[in-house]
Design brief:
About 30% of the residues lie in helices and about 25% in strands. The protein is an alpha+beta fold. The chain has four domains: about 180 residues, Topoisomerase II, domain 5, CATH 3.90.199.10; about 80 residues, Gyrase A, domain 2 (2-Layer Sandwich), CATH 3.30.1360; about 130 residues, Topoisomerase, domain 3, CATH 1.10.268.10; about 325 residues, Neuraminidase (6 Propeller). The strands form twelve sheets. The protein has a four-stranded mixed β-sheet with strand order 14-9-8-17. The chain has a four-stranded antiparallel β-sheet with strand order 10-11-13-12, with helices on one face. A hairpin with a 3-residue loop joins strand 29 and strand 30. The N and C termini lie far apart (about 100 Å).
Length: about 850
């Protein structure tokens, strides 16, 4: 469009610039005029207007309550041009003792609850200002603050309140403006005022010293603050985060049943919603072990009872409640407020300085106001004093005057009085000329002169001003004693691991010969018998398998999985799938990160890593190594090196020891050695080890076992099985101790018929063993059926093999068979010993 044809009254503007300008004006209006508090009195405009309106109505704490509707109507009609709902909502929050640490409004009637119940309509409730609320307006009548016009220009309202205490930090504030927000937690009045006094004494006090006085927020709903470093960070730079936990107690309901009692909830957590959330988690089976939840809260405080099922883990359920419900919340501090019309992020020191500067201005303006008033009164009293000293002459002048104006002029001329003084003399009652009244005027003049001197002294220096501020803050401490409500804990925020939600209970873990694993509750098994023998399966994969290892261990214990590559992988017991007793299990390689051609050789259960325990290793080339168990306590993804190998070597055995046992090693060519474990010093993880047994030719080590004092007491024997199917048991005493590294003694007479040694195992009377051939034949038999004979014999046939068929492996059977008698506890004892 041609600009020349546009009417001259129309202004041509760039729409982009106009939108930017309009939005900026809108944003600043919201920031300054609605959403953010003033750093001086800690109030947003709506809260300030509510208190100012109550002040105008004389609605103080020592007066009767008035209808909330009257207060709301007065506010929206005179000062706050917005809806009645936001005004009443703001007033309701000022009256809720669970929302504000120190309520500024005293409400009578239903003002809502911590369960999220709404307040009754304002026509039903009544309110008045609290005593501490009146301290925010103290001395406002003495021209201590500036005023501005209301929204229609018909009235004036204060731009800020005098605020005799540091309300912003004491009551906190939260609000969302345009592009910014504030979230200031409430604090303890005594601590914040004490910090203000400390800053008066030492204006250069450090933030660290202030934190010693104000160690953390203090919430009206109590609770426990953790991760205080986050709160201290907010004090130092204006932003930080900390956590609030609800307070719980554990009550014993009966011998095996407990209840979790919640007596405090984090700030701003809706109790009814929290209970509903817990019930939903129980219904969805996210939390297991809760039988009932009920609210027994009353006027004395919160009491939510969470009943637990029999033998439930209190710690696990508590961890779940903390992690998955609002029993623990995070509070993000953003110390943002308006100063001089601009939003700023402040530190605790900056805030206290701004508050004290505000109080300095208030006290200065109040003192000037009082001084002017005192001087005006002094001026009048001086005139009255002159008149009383010359009363006869004054009376004569008044009698001769034609009117009041003439009398006033004559008095001013006769005694050099001002018009104000002359008028005060004319207004004086005749009773003032009595001796008593004359003395009162003279005494008042003396007192007013002393007052003027004191006021001038206050204004003479900042030091005197701060003395007044200090005395008034000390008065706040006396009038409003404030014990701390929220506990401050040095505990840091806990990052919950999976284990925190797992109940610590005994489990039976079984590992099959083909590497399948599963876990079952101890109660799954009754007392176990070990007498079965014969073919356990057919040619199917499932029938050829059998349980090779079985142990009772806690769900929170570790399984140390050692591989043929000399690496260690950790596996928490709770990660092993829980299945029925008859289930096959899951391949353990699916639970570990193994490399190609790597297979698990041995698994050692460890309840806890402790000093004085070792892991003993043996390789097929005769090397041995002993390493402190603590060296394997730092879990790493992908495993770690447990032992280094020479080329062609590999791990054949591993066991946990206490450093005082005997070590037995056997070779495929029928040699063996027994030596004291103390002959092997403790080494690092990556060490290759030292020679345990000297080998000749193509001989290799096929078995290693630990012999302790209990093995000798229980008459354990060493079971040797050859590739040709021959076997024997030999008593431990036949293997004399030797020095480490020797060639050893004969363990089995190896011949072409007998074949080389397949393995040597330590067994007890009553044990069963399984023997597997390379053709898939599998036989189970009792060890008591195998002859116990001398060390250098060739043994007896224990399994009949076909031509070119050889024994591939042997293992002690850990697969239990149900019997009617016995209890679950018996297997715990038996497997713990094994």
């Amino acid at each position: 469009m041609d600009p020349e044809v546009i009417d001259s009254s129309i202004k041509v503007v760039n729409i982009e610039e106009e939108i930017k300008s309009a939005y900026l004006e809108y944003a600043m209006s919201v920031i300054v005029g609605r959403a953010l508090p003033d750093i001086r009195d800690g109030l947003k405009p709506v809260h300030r207007r509510i208190l100012w309106s109550m002040n105008e109505q004389g609605n103080f704490h020592d007066k009767k309550y008035v209808k909330s509707a009257r207060i709301v109507g007065d506010v929206i009609g005179k000062y706050h041009p917005h809806g009645d709902s936001p005004v009443y909502g703001a007033m309701v929050r000022m009256a809720q003792d669970f929302s504000q640490h120190y309520t500024l409004v005293d409400g009578q009637g239903n003002f809502g609850s911590i369960d999220g119940d709404n307040a009754a309509a304002y026509r039903y409730t009544e309110a008045r200002m609290t005593k501490i609320g009146s301290y925010l307006l103290k001395d406002i009548e003495k021209e201590t603050v500036d005023y501005g016009l209301n929204y229609d220009g018909s009235l004036k309202e204060p731009k800020v309140l005098p605020s005799a205490f540091p309300n912003l930090l004491v009551n906190g504030s939260s609000g969302i403006a345009v592009g910014m927000s504030t979230n200031i937690p409430p604090h303890n009045l005594t601590e914040v005022v004490t910090a203000s006094l400390a800053m008066i004494e030492d204006p250069e006090i450090s933030i660290t010293d202030l934190i010693e006085i104000v160690p953390g927020p203090d919430f009206p709903t109590r609770g426990i603050i953790t991760n205080l470093t986050g709160a201290h960070l907010a004090y130092k730079n204006g932003k930080g985060s900390f956590s609030i936990k609800g307070r719980v107690e554990i009550e014993e309901r009966s011998k095996d049943r407990q209840s979790i009692i919640v007596t405090e909830l984090p700030y701003q957590v809706n109790k009814a919603n929290w209970i509903s959330a817990v019930a939903s988690l129980v219904k969805d089976k996210v939390i297991d072990g809760i039988s009932d939840i009920r609210d027994e809260s009353n006027k004395k405080g919160i009491r939510v009872v969470v009943d637990l099922k029999k033998d439930s883990s209190t710690d696990v359920i508590l961890n779940t409640l903390y992690a998955k419900t609002q029993l623990k919340t995070s509070f993000g501090c953003n110390m943002l407020a308006i100063e001089n019309g601009r939003p700023i992020v402040f530190t605790i020191k900056k805030y206290l300085r701004s508050f004290l500067d505000h109080r300095k201005e208030i006290v200065t303006r109040r003192t000037v106001f009082d001084l002017n008033k005192a001087q005006a009164r002094e001026h009048i009293l001086l005139g009255l004093d002159i008149a009383l000293n010359n009363i006869d002459e004054v009376v004569e002048i008044i009698k001769k005057a034609s009117d009041a104006h003439a009398a006033r002029v004559s008095l001013c001329k006769a005694f050099e009085l001002s018009k104000i003084q002359a008028q005060a003399i004319l207004d004086m009652k005749l009773q003032k000329i009595t001796a008593l009244e004359t003395e009162k005027i003279k005494k008042e003049l003396e007192e007013i002169r002393l007052k003027i001197a004191d006021l001038k002294k206050i204004l003479s220096s900042d030091e005197e001003l701060y003395k007044v501020i200090k005395s008034e803050l000390e008065e706040i401490l006396k009038v409003f004693p404030s014990p701390r409500k929220t506990e401050l804990s040095t505990e840091q925020d806990k990052t919950f691991a999976v284990e925190d939600f797992i109940k610590d209970e005994p489990m039976i873990v079984s590992i099959s010969n083909q590497g399948y694993c599963k876990r079952c509750h101890v109660e799954t098994y009754k007392k176990q018998g070990r007498g079965g023998k014969g073919v356990l399966g057919t040619n199917t994969a499932e029938s050829e398998d059998f349980t090779k290892q079985m142990f009772v261990v806690s769900t929170l214990s570790y399984m140390l999985c050692f591989t043929n590559k000399g690496r260690l992988h950790w596996l928490k017991v709770h990660r092993v799938p829980e299945m029925k007793r008859t289930a096959k299990g899951r391949p353990i390689i699916q639970l570990l990160k193994l490399s190609e051609d790597e297979k698990v050789l041995s698994i050692l259960p460890v309840d806890k890593f402790e000093e004085g325990k070792y892991i003993f290793f043996a390789t097929k080339k005769g090397l041995v190594k002993k390493t402190d168990l603590m060296s394997f306590s730092k879990v790493r993804q992908g495993g770690i090196i447990a032992i280094s190998f020479e080329e062609g070597d590999e791990l054949i055995g591993v066991a946990i020891t206490d450093g005082e046992n005997k070590i037995f090693m056997a070779t495929c060519n029928g040699q063996s050695i027994t030596f004291d474990e103390s002959n092997v010093r403790s080494m690092g993880r990556t060490a290759k080890g030292v020679k345990g047994l000297s080998l000749k030719g193509d001989d290799i080590v096929v078995g290693m076992d630990i012999l302790d004092s209990e093995d000798f007491e229980k008459k354990a024997t060493l079971l040797t099985i050859s590739e040709g199917g021959y076997g024997k048991r030999t008593e431990l005493e036949e293997y004399r101790s030797q020095g480490r590294g020797g060639s050893g003694v004969r363990n089995l007479k190896v011949t072409e018929k007998v074949g080389r040694v397949c393995n040597v195992l330590k067994v007890y009377s009553g044990d069963d063993v399984v023997i597997i051939s390379d053709k898939g034949k599998l036989i189970r038999l009792a060890t008591d059926e195998i002859s116990c004979i001398g060390r250098s014999t060739q043994g007896v046939r224990v399994i009949k093999l076909n031509n070119e068929e050889k024994v591939r492996a042997i293992a002690v059977v850990a697969d239990p068979k149900d019997e009617e008698e016995g209890t679950s506890e018996e297997i715990v004892d038996k497997d713990d010993k094994n």
